[in-house]
Write a structure and sequence with these properties.
Blueprint (H helix, E strand, L loop, with lengths): L10 H14 L2 E5 L5 H12 L3 E6 L9 H4 L4 E5 L3 H19 L1
Parallel strand pairs: 1-2, 2-3
Length: 102
C-alpha cells in the first residue's frame, strides 16, 4: 500500500483511513511516551471494538505515563529502553496473543 502523504489528504480522509486501519488490525501497538491526543483517541477506539492493545513507554526525565493508560486494565503497558527491547516486547505480545488463540 502506497501512502500519498498527509498533506494531500483532508482531515476526514485521514480519520476514515486510520479508523479503517484500526478495524482491520489484529492488535494495536502504540508508543505512548509522548502524550498525543490522536494516539489516545486511537487507543480508546481500539479498546471500544475489542482490540488487544500494547502500550510501550520509555521512562525519561521523571515524566509519568498518563493514568488513563497506565491504569487501564485492558491495556498491556510495558516499560522499555531502546529499540531492541521494544521489538522483543512486541514479539512477546504477539506470541502471547497467538498462544491464547490456540
Amino acid at each position: 500500500m502506497t501512502d500519498q502523504g498527509e498533506s494531500t489528504k483532508s482531515d476526514e480522509e485521514i480519520f476514515q483511513r486510520d479508523v479503517a486501519w484500526i478495524r482491520e488490525a489484529d492488535i494495536i501497538v502504540a508508543e505512548v511516551t509522548v502524550p498525543s491526543m490522536g494516539v489516545g483517541y486511537e487507543l480508546g477506539f481500539g479498546e471500544s471494538i475489542g482490540k488487544d492493545v500494547l502500550c510501550l513507554y520509555r521512562e525519561k526525565d521523571g515524566r509519568r505515563l498518563s493514568a488513563m493508560i497506565a491504569g487501564n486494565p485492558r491495556f498491556r503497558v510495558q516499560v522499555y529502553q531502546g529499540v531492541d527491547a521494544a521489538v522483543e516486547l512486541v514479539k512477546d505480545f504477539i506470541d502471547h496473543r497467538v498462544a491464547r488463540k490456540l
